[in-house]
Amino acid sequence: MAFLELTGLVKRYGTTAAVDGVDLAVERGEFLSLLGPSGCGKSTTLMMIAGFVDPTAGRIAIGGRDVANIRPNNRNIGVVFQSFALFPHMTVAENVGFGLEMRGVAAEERARRIADTLALVRLADFAQRYPKQLSGGQQQRVALARALVVQPDLLLLDEPMSSLDAKLREEMRVEIRDIQRRVAITTILVTHDQSEALLMADRVAVMDRGRIVRIGRPYEVYEDPGSRFVCNFLGRTNLIPAAVIGRSPGRSRLRIGAVEIDALGDAPSERATLSLRPERLAFAEEGLPGKVESCLFMGGQWLYRVGTAIGELLVIRPNEGGKHVPEGGQVRVSWDADAPRVVHE
Amino acid sequence: MPYLLSAPATAVLTLFLAVPLVMVLLLSFNTFTMATGIQPGYSLVNYIEVLGDEYFHTIFGRTFLLAACVTAVSALIGAPEAYIVHRMRAPWRSLFLLVILGPLLVSVVVRTLGWAVLLGRNGMVNVVLKSLGIVESPVEFMFTFTGMTVALVHVLVPFLVLSVWTSLRRLDPAVEAAAISLGASQITVLRRIVLPQAMPGILSGCLIVFTLAASAFATPAIVGGRRLKVASMAAYDEFLNSLNWPLGAAIVVVLLVAMVAIVMVSNRVVERRFRQVFEG
């Protein structure tokens, strides 16, 4: 039995369902990310686990125990909020110690655990500062320390990085993931940022309109998104409408104009959508002829728009120094056999 | 450019605040006798009278006691009221804010006479209390200290509610949720998280209420009457009844100086104590 189990979880506001039947099982120590656009129900799901929102229907069990009748202050869950939600009138040490105080931990023990946890988040020298005297990244780490110090059964992260700037966000992602591995705490991260979810989580659950539409390891979900929604949401892709002209188990033969392409995946009907990830496309001797319409330099990568017989294709090539194909250049676009995927609507 | 933009306000303030204040200050150094009227000059005789006379001690003592009582009661009523309004949902919140602001929308005379009708010897409250047999003789309300306090709290509590409400609005709701998730009960959240953050609002609201209560005139005059004089009434009487303008001016100056001192000292204390909440 999984450590955290959500069964048929529903939350309705009036007639609209914010969460519309979510089933989810998270193993002890696992890092799972709920990923989706705003309004997909991911935050509501998180708040139901935390106990701040009551489910309309369904069951939440933590460690095999139904928590429906356990109030949020007794659930022993650590939450890191988007705004960090630090107590502005308390020092860092007082912030971190608050949960211990609520649990009646003796002063000496408390001081020791505050010091240990602040060392874990590399804030040992900041214990006597107030939150307003800290940078965004430091505040973030205080919020994390405050949630972790009580040794919760579950750590919930609600868009924890969205108020940090880009550079800091990347550092904090790695740091939070490392800390999570070290303390081995079951963690659920809610985010709308796909790279955050892919980088940090053991498993990613993509949500759309109150349901989980795809769940799996980050690599699996990225490579085999299944639906157009997931495909579009996770990374960039070229989506090309096609006619289905042949089927074999797990594969489909598609035709776009005069071009025929073999793709992975079963096509549900006579029409299908082909997905070609831009980074899986390359320029080679053999392949689909095309003309470079625009060429943008992004530092680590070149971003090409190539006009071909199957439409305009986005091609991303790593910057390997030296030459790139200039605008107007004639190229041939090629790909590996496992790159084309059939996605359904 | 900023100077140009502030010119109208500067002109108004100079003309209608600074100049009259200086004139009152100068007036307070003049002397007065029934026989000679106001004599120009620079004498401290009025200040000696105001600061030395038992009669004025009682009046100033009453004024500040009244202001303190009104402030304390307003804080006890207003702060919870503001929190409740803060927690209300959208349509109710504006409705109840309007209700809270109600007393300010009614003219001071109408409002105060309303209190007289309601709470006088033969007012509604006493009639009901008597007919229910709860009291035998009517509860004295008009011309009592309690009456003045109640009537002033009624009109001044909105200032406190607004001040606290503004500071509560800056409160991040997630902060309360964070405290709850860390194991705090609702009462602990109120005491340890909400109250400390609302404190600057409560204290600045108290300051507004205190100064307005100490300088109130119409309400204490009607409800308290001449028997329970406060400083503003004493000044009024000196000006209009005794025609001793210099003495009235001296009362006004003493009241003003005392209040400015109180405001400045408490501002200092509040700012020092709550620096963390204010900063940023």
Proportion of helical residues of chain A? 10-25%
Work out the helicity level of chain B. Answer: over 70%
* Strand segment tally of chain B: 2
- The end-to-end span of chain B amounts to 28 Å
Secondary-structure blueprint:
The complex is a heterodimer of chains A (345) and B (280).
Chain A: E1 4-13, E2 16-26, E3 31-35, H1 42-50, E4 57-62, E5 65-66, E6 77-80, H2 92-102, H3 107-120, H4 136-148, E7 154-158, H5 166-183, E8 186-191, H6 194-200, E9 203-208, E10 211-216, H7 218-223, H8 228-233, E11 238-248, E12 251-256, E13 259-264, E14 271-276, E15 281-297, E16 301-308, E17 311-318, E18 330-335, E19 341-343
Parallel strand pairs in A: 3-8, 3-9, 6-7, 7-8
Antiparallel strand pairs in A: 1-2, 1-4, 4-5, 9-10, 11-12, 11-14, 12-13, 14-19, 15-16, 15-18, 16-17
Helix pairs in contact in A: 2-3, 2-4, 3-4
Chain B: H1 2-28, E1 31-33, E2 37-39, H2 45-52, H3 54-87, H4 90-105, H5 108-119, H6 124-131, H7 145-169, H8 173-181, H9 186-215, H10 218-224, H11 231-240, H12 245-273, H13 275-278
Antiparallel strand pairs in B: 1-2
Helix pairs in contact in B: 1-12, 2-3, 2-12, 3-7, 3-9, 4-7, 5-10, 7-9, 7-10, 8-9, 9-12, 11-12
In short:
With 345 residues, chain A is α+β, with helices and mostly antiparallel strands.
Structure commentary:
The complex is a heterodimer of chains A (345) and B (280). Chain A has helices spanning 42-50, 92-102, 107-120, 136-148, 166-183, 194-200, 218-223, 228-233; strands spanning 4-13, 16-26, 31-35, 57-62, 65-66, 77-80, 154-158, 186-191, 203-208, 211-216, 238-248, 251-256, 259-264, 271-276, 281-297, 301-308, 311-318, 330-335, 341-343. By secondary structure, chain A is α+β, with helices and mostly antiparallel strands. A 6-stranded mixed sheet of chain A has the order 6-7-8-3-9-10, sandwiched between helices. In chain A, strands 13-12-11-14-19 form a 5-stranded antiparallel sheet. The radius of gyration of chain A is 24 Å and the shape is globular. Chain A starts with a strand and ends with a strand. The mean pLDDT of chain A is 93. With 280 residues, chain B is mainly alpha-helical. Chain B has one domain (2-106, 142-279): MetI-like fold (Orthogonal Bundle). Chain B has helices at 2-28, 45-52, 54-87, 90-105, 108-119, 124-131, 145-169, 173-181, 186-215, 218-224, 231-240, 245-273, 275-278; strands at residues 31-33, 37-39. Chain B has a two-stranded antiparallel ribbon. In chain B, helix 4 (90-105) runs antiparallel to helix 7 and helix 8 (173-181) packs antiparallel against helix 9. The relative contact order of chain B is 0.13. Chain A binds chain B through residues 50-52, 72-79, 81-83, 85-89, 98-99, 102-103, 130, 132, 143, 146-147, 150, and chain B through 172, 174-175, 177-185, 188, 192-193, 196-197, 274, 276-277, 279-280.
